[in-house]
Amino acid sequence: MKPPPGSENAGKPGYYTVKPGDALIRIALDNGQSWRDVAKWNSLENPNRIEVGQVLRVVPPGVDAGAVTAKPVAAAPKVESRPLDAKPPVAAASSPAAASSSAATGTPAASSDEDALAWGWPVTQSVSAGFDEQRNKGLDFAGKPGDPVLAVADGRVVYAGSGLRGYGNLVIIKHNNTYLTAYAHNRAMLVEQDQVVRKGQRIAEMGSTESDTVKLHFEVRKLGKPVDPAKLLPAR
What we know:
The chain is mainly beta. Helix content is 6%, strand content 23%. Among the domains are: 7-63, Roll (Membrane-bound Lytic Murein Transglycosylase D, Chain A), CATH 3.10.350; 139-231, Glucose Permease (Domain IIA) (Distorted Sandwich).
């Protein structure tokens, strides 16, 4: 039997072995990357198709993968336009693979201040459910349909769609080489993939897609790993 693609890299730093139920958007999000970059680095002709046991590169080629946990590795994206009707792929696995991305150049980050962000709050409402590493990988905010959802810092939209199971209409913003933020269960999304956004900009309307109540589920990912947003957001 022919071994899965990339199996010679199994277990190496900077590589991920596909498990049952995996989807490209989830793999990319959990590694602080985007599906287009991961697809490009692995020469995936069809991003919808990844197989169990396949080993994917999840850091840019030429980067020291062993340093990933200590320092961000993806370069800042370049501005580029895309058609408004461009649609991301949908995975054949249990979770659809869909996400957009900036075009990473594969050069290491040069700034020593990548972690320094001027954070803001995504909504005006108070927190209705706090961070729990096992049960809630972000903060929840209850609200009314149509309440504004705001970008918490400057960045670029790397995904706007409904391709990740359990998140409903989802917006993901990449702020720098370290941080991504995710805004889930929106009624409407007011930004498109690859769009540059500014702190405080209205990016979505609160809703209840894939949720039994109207709420915003908000996550902060540091190098792909969920962290407690309450420790980063300013006092108010």
